[in-house]
Amino acid sequence: MVPFKPYFLGEVKPPFDRATSVQKCVRTPDIEEVGKTTRHGTFFQMCGNFSFGDYFKEGAVKLAWELLTTPQDKGGYGLDPERLWITVYQDDDEAERIWHEVVGVPRERIQRLGKKDNFWDMGVPGPCGPCSEINYDRGPEFGAEGGPAVNDERYVEIWNLVFMQYERGEGPGKDYPILGDLPSKNIDTGLGLERLAMILQGVRNMYEIDTSMAVIDKATELTGVRYGDAQASDVSLRVVTDHMRTSVMLIGDGVTPGNEGRGYVLRRIMRRAIRNMRLLGATGPVVKDLIDVVIGMMGQQYPELITDRERIEKVALAEENAFLKTLKAGTNILDTAVSDTKAAGSTVLPGDKAFLLHDTWGFPIDLTLEMAAEQGLSVDEEGFRRLMKEQRERAKADAQAKKTGHADLGAYREIADRAGATDFIGYTDTEGEST
Ligand code: ATP
Ligand code: MG
Ligand code: MG
Ligand code: MG
């Protein structure tokens, strides 16, 4: 929705009052959840509808309800209205009233949540507002009752309606001042396509929907591990599936693996997928086979994946090759570091080891975290980040020195101070003969 920001702020007049979209999303902070919860991917597609000063709360609520609950043969998704639970922002009486009085949701299925869940902003000064979410009750086999406020796996969130009406200022987290009203009241919603598919296809988790299950199947074929046999291998299979989808979508959009920014996001995700395939028992390269399945599943919606297949494969295979070259040696280094740490009576792997693994052996930090955790250790992430920062600063200083032609002469000065003045005798004397 970032391109719409100037419309929300009233800086640019939108060429239309309403819009709908499907956004490709990559959410790296959710990486730890992947495969463990049933509903988080690092890649997902978010369907949305937008109003720029056109319909507002009541309009958005009615549209969402209609789409979700209208029977399938009449063009809706046919969800059972009794299974839908609503959350509203803690003091949004108006939203609660609309859900109850206009739509008819019983009050006991409407819950109020605080800023963390139900007040939305872009993470920077700009538009913001309270939101209201629609959640689907998947039934007692997913745990205790009590609504989304107490069990977000059973009552899975599918759609977030944001009532974008205020402008926020600077401040950390959710601690920012509201500067005032936006020039118009707007709507921005996000409906998770894979989560909706999970419900409509009647599968237990997001990785088992049709377009993802084919990747799980390929991974089981390549490793001989059966899906459903054990919790640990199931998590690995889901991690592989999610991460390969994300990798293909990122490379398709022009990202290449690297050590900074977007490139590093891709590298982390790809390497984690490859390593999980090893955990499952794969010994050779696996990326090409997995990519082919992802492209087969996603190519119809994103034809650029098909036309760009060769480039995508080339980028991915190069990354797999590079990683497989260092994976074994890096794993040995990590194992030694883990034993040393344990022998010293500590449970925290030192930051310099994580840095060495990153710098010399191409182990992104998530991988080190995951591998250390498997052996019962945490990692001194702060120490790791400090070393990373120091390295970046050194690189910056070097680049600056190259640009200005002024290298840091400190080291030479130190030697000169130690050795004292010297005479150059190279014109008259040489040591040995050159050939
Ligand atoms: P949750 O509380 O389940 O983590 P969220 O509140 O972080 O979800 P939003 O930021 O409100 O999610 O995003 C809008 C919609 O996008 C969600 O209602 C959900 O359907 C979908 N969504 C969000 N994160 C993910 C994810 N990691 N994988 C799949 N779908 C997601
Ligand atoms: Mg979330
Ligand atoms: Mg949420
Ligand atoms: Mg949400």
From TrEMBL:
Location of the protein in the cell: Cytoplasm
Cofactor(s), by name: Zn(2+)
Domain Alanyl-transfer RNA synthetases family profile: 1-435
Single Gene Ontology MF annotation: ligase activity
Superkingdom classification of source: Bacteria
Keywords: Aminoacyl-tRNA synthetase, ATP-binding, Coiled coil, Cytoplasm, Ligase, Metal-binding, Nucleotide-binding, Protein biosynthesis, RNA-binding, tRNA-binding, Zinc
Catalytic reaction equation(s): tRNA(Ala) + L-alanine + ATP = L-alanyl-tRNA(Ala) + AMP + diphosphate
Cofactor note: Binds 1 zinc ion per subunit.
EC number: 6.1.1.7
Domain notes: Consists of three domains; the N-terminal catalytic domain, the editing domain and the C-terminal C-Ala domain. The editing domain removes incorrectly charged amino acids, while the C-Ala domain, along with tRNA(Ala), serves as a bridge to cooperatively bring together the editing and aminoacylation centers thus stimulating deacylation of misacylated tRNAs.
Function: Catalyzes the attachment of alanine to tRNA(Ala) in a two-step reaction: alanine is first activated by ATP to form Ala-AMP and then transferred to the acceptor end of tRNA(Ala). Also edits incorrectly charged Ser-tRNA(Ala) and Gly-tRNA(Ala) via its editing domain.
Family of the protein in this entry: Belongs to the class-II aminoacyl-tRNA synthetase family.
Protein name: Alanine--tRNA ligase
Organism encoding this protein: Streptomyces prasinosporus
Gene behind this protein: alaS
Entire protein: shown range: 1 to 435 of 849
